[in-house]
């Protein structure tokens, strides 16, 4: 099983290539859609890594893939600018999920 990166910047792509992860750099809605379709059609790919920017800018594409495909697993990762999430996002997520304040 392989990982595949879809990034919006060359720095993240270069870092992941050094770690042995194949990938592509895309910038537009259509490029992202095409890259996702190619990655999904490759049965060797079990995990798709996406920079968080795509989750913010094109949530409809990401959600569609997550809803209609069991594999691959899609994981949003921070890019070179860091994460766009709040510092306590994990605690907030758990609070929402179980309905208890930690």
From TrEMBL:
Q: Matching Pfam families, A to Z? A: ATP-synt_F (PF01990)
- Ion transport: present as a keyword of the record? yes
Q: This protein's superkingdom?
A: Bacteria
GO terms (molecular function) for this protein are: proton-transporting ATPase activity, rotational mechanism
Q: Which InterPro entries match?
A: ATPase_V1-cplx_f_g_su, ATPase_V1_fsu_sf
For this UniProt record, give its keywords in alphabetical order, as a comma-separated list.
Ion transport, Transport
Query: Family assignment?
Result: Belongs to the V-ATPase F subunit family.
What is the protein name stated in its UniProt record? ATP synthase subunit F
Q: What is the lineage of its organism?
A: Bacteria, Bacillati, Bacillota, Clostridia, Lachnospirales
